Amino acid sequence: MTAELHELAGDVQYPLDLAGIFAFAVHGALIATRKDFDFFGTLLLAESAGVGGGLFRDLVLRVQPVAFTDLGCAIAPFLATLLVFFSSRAQSWKRGWHVADAGALGMFCVTGTVKALDHGLNSPASAAIGVTTAVGGGVACSVLAREIPSSLAWDRDLYVVPALLGSGLVILLHATSTLRVATAVAAGLLAFAFRLSAVRRGWRTPRSALWRRAGAVPKPATLPEGRREKTMLPPADARTAQHRQVSSELH
Which of 75, 144, 230, 231 has a CA that sits 20 to 30 A from residue 182's CA? Predict the structure, then answer.
């Protein structure tokens, strides 16, 4: 890697990581306050969302996790917790949080990939590390909050795909010897813009053929035979009923 890339993986990466940690921590704190967690529960979710992806990255790369050695990585989630927990309007700032979250996604998928390349990983492994750095904290936070991670659900705005775009662009730039600070930042900005477009336009990943074939859930036995009306079940009930229907078809 060039001297510029070593700079990106070092001094330039640090402020970007702190900004991304803060943005992801805000997202985790918002989930906690929505579920009426206390202050320490909110701080735990903020910490897991903020540093979870980077912690996984460093453990895989067998380097000392920055989350345990740098005070800034602990202060950023703490400040995010204070901001969200003691503000009665935090839940109404969704547009701003979407922008911050998309920015953190764009930064982390790029810096995670660059750090993996800098430690000698091959291209597919580096891209995987970049994506995991970007989405890992959100997955950990959702698991603690007993929610399905948005990066895994088909009915949520695209999340993994923008991260894949940013990481893939870094790999392409590295393969063509054009990976510099400026081009890496451009890759992050493209991932950021793609994520925001997905939020605004409601882009989704395709649903599996099995669940598309299952269709809507019919009403139980009260309807006359031959009628095919559809119920308007709550989303959770409808998903449970569909799961039972598909499971019965599989067996």
Answer: 75
